[in-house]
Specification:
Shape of chain A: globular
CATH class of the largest domain in chain A: Alpha Beta
Largest sheet of chain A: 6 strands, mixed
Distance between the termini of chain A: 10 Å
Helix content of chain A: 25-40%
Radius of gyration of chain A: 22 Å
Number of strands of chain A: 15
CATH superfamily of the largest domain in chain A: L-amino peptidase D-ALA esterase/amidase
Structural class of chain A: alpha+beta
Number of helices of chain A: 11
Number of domains of chain A: 2
Oligomer: homodimer
Largest interface: A-B, 68 and 68 residues
CATH architecture of the largest domain in chain A: 4-Layer Sandwich
């Protein structure tokens, strides 16, 4: 594995310190399945009564752990999450399934819960059998040492090609009570929406029933993990789980909808945590040197705006131009055209770094490349395109395509 | 422009010498619009009575020359094609349109034909106005020197980032008469189906009416130019024109369908020419070090097989793995999954270089990586995937994703 170990130049300067969340205890272990000398196993233990919601990859070749989560999510309860890094247990046939079964069975025994309340996620190499023994051997010990501290260690234990650990936190009021939301995530390559490839685990001490929790999560993901792309590749393992440990007695009375105004602050805080984690994944995009926001407005619908924005954000020609600090808006126009969505070529406008470079279907006569040279040389690139046919808009985030991406992916067996 | 000038390692060893085609005269000129010291303008003059068919980019931001061709193709007749390299005359607003109008008007006068019988194609930078004067100034002279020789020069004059000139030829019998098909093409980056980005001009002395010519061309393109991808990016300028100069009197009696058995040999030869040109474009893919054939079989439909094959062929992770000579079939499985088309994970098989590496949803127990090391180190990579749900199949061709792609596209303003 020839993964560059220095952190991405787009990494945040300081690592966040996450507060404890009542009902959540964490522990990390070393299985040496692939990595040695670093924790590669995370166990999150959840108090009885915890609700769970999840969003999983839409890949048709999803992994055995994803199959397991999909089968159990409708129950809506969780007592543990087990995550291993280094081997995705994907495309491993019946062996993959039996590894999951052995893991949850051992966990149920170690954690004294039903196997169906144990969720598993695996990330790393595809197609190599994952032996459950090194995982199951340490579960009982991890249950002993699990504590409400150690969020940073937890975020580190699930990393593969990531160059920095990813976490976010926010607080909100629900019915006069302050609740906390903590999230960790991993992801660097094989990142594309539906779902953005990654694992992410979000925990809150809010008291929210599973059905409503699921709606809140699905909504928040649409404009966060489903609005980022590194390379347009979708993994077999994408898993986002949201656990709410809040006591049944603390639940709001007559709460019937995720749109209940009493949940508005919480929904906003959840959006913020997911958005931050999504951005961190892009900032750790393999080889990324620049963080790029692409906003498409003037589209016929949000779906169309998203499709056009993704066409731009996934275009290798746009991404290499930005790597070369070239404000090549012609390639942006090309990407709009290839999306297949409605756009009026002769009313199209493009802004880069707030400067209008093209207007009404041609170069803006007032624009000079020198005006945005400093912007192109910066770490944060801002692209806005008005396609001139409607009122809808959508923003996606991506990174540039650099030599480092090739270095990392021509060598790493993932 | 920092384009590497050495030919692609995948270029054919010898340049083809194309025979003359009755009714076609060629001339090249220098306009210095972008390049200096090399021909950058091609004029093909066609005898009266020539039929024309064409397939154009589906981009929503197509160029002014493509607009012009689209408007005139239904007429079915042609007397001249003018192609300039270096400036695509795309996203140039009303100026772009008036450049086309000035060009065809001057050509009609120089070549003594109707402006509507003059077809234009431009390739190169997007978003910069194209002055027609350097083109129109030389048309009369080019008409004087045009000859039935010089196919190689013609193929060279239309190059942009291409590292070698692309041509192909074949012969067929129609009604006891031998006819010739010559084709030239350009294309290297911004190559994706619908349409594969490129310009290609095909000429034959066969006598075929425009409607049938169009059907033959559309059919042949489906498995050639629409079955290749370099980077998944679609240009604003894609243009394929097929001209048949054969005399009206030579036409077959009662020819009503492109499926007429008397055209079978011709259709096969046309397929061959287009396939060869399409392969040459992939072999000149920006930065390409390996030529990759991806065949998907066992799919529910041809459309599904093509979609899955393109998902594999466009995956940056698959393409970088191949650049690194890594038989990373896990990424192939990932790409199958992300295509969204039906596939049976547990019946999926993958062959690389004829060696089965995965079978029934897991690594083939008999497979050892050393068995395909030599294949991975070669120039031609062969991938076959059986998705296990049906009987349809489709093949697409692509190249690997290398450092050179980044070098070329982080610098070149296209």
């Amino acid at each position: 594995m020839a993964v560059p170990s220095s952190p991405s130049p787009l990494a945040p300067n300081a690592q966040l310190r996450l507060p404890a969340i009542k009902g959540v205890r964490l522990a990390v272990g070393e299985t040496a399945v692939k990595y040695s000398g670093r924790p590669d196993l995370l166990v999150a233990l959840l108090d009885p009564g915890t609700s769970i919601a999840g969003v999983l990859t839409r890949s048709k070749t999803r992994s055995a752990p994803v199959d397991w989560c999909a089968a159990n999510l409708p129950r809506g309860t969780a007592r543990a999450i087990i995550v291993n890094a280094g081997n995705a247990n994907a495309f491993t046939g019946r062996k993959g399934q039996s590894t999951v079964e052995a893991t949850v069975k051992a966990a149920a025994s170690a954690f004294d819960c039903a196997p169906q309340d144990v969720y598993v996620a695996s990330t790393g190499v595809i197609g190599e059998p994952l032996d459950p023994a090194p995982i199951t051997a340490v579960l009982a010990d991890l249950a002993q040492v699990a504590s409400s501290e150690g969020w940073q260690k937890a975020a580190s234990a699930i990393m593969t090609t990531d160059t920095f650990a990813k976490s976010a936190t926010a607080q909100a009021q629900i019915g006069g009570r302050t609740v906390t939301i903590n999230g960790i995530a991993k992801g660097s390559g094989m990142i594309a929406p539906d779902m953005a490839t990654m694992l992410s685990f979000i925990f809150t001490d809010a008291a929210i029933p599973p059905g409503i929790l699921q709606k809140l999560l699905t909504t928040a993901i649409a404009t966060s993990f489903n609005a980022i792309t590194v390379d347009g590749d979708t993994s077999t393992s994408d898993t986002v789980l949201l656990c709410a440990t809040g006591d049944r007695k603390q639940r709001l009375k007559n709460l019937r909808s995720a749109n209940d105004p009493r949940l508005r602050q919480f929904a906003k805080a959840l959006d913020q945590v997911l958005r931050e984690l999504a951005h961190l994944i892009v900032r750790d995009g393999e080889g990324a040197q620049k963080f790029i926001a692409v906003t498409v407005k003037g589209a016929k619908s949000t779906v169309a705006a998203r499709c056009i924005a993704l066409a731009i954000a996934n275009s290798p020609l746009v991404k290499t131009a930005i790597a070369g600090e070239d404000a090549n808006w012609g390639r942006i126009v090309m990407a709009v055209g290839k999306s297949g969505e409605a756009a009026d070529r002769d009313r199209l406008s493009v802004w880069i770094g707030g400067q209008r470079v093209a207007h009404n279907g041609m170069a803006d006569p007032k624009y000079r490349e020198t005006q945005i040279a400093a912007h192109m040389q910066g770490r944060e690139i801002d692209i806005i395109v008005d396609v001139g046919v409607g009122k809808a808009q959508f923003t996606v985030w991506t990174c540039d395509l650099t030599h480092r991406y090739i270095d990392i992916n021509a060598d790493y067996r993932s």
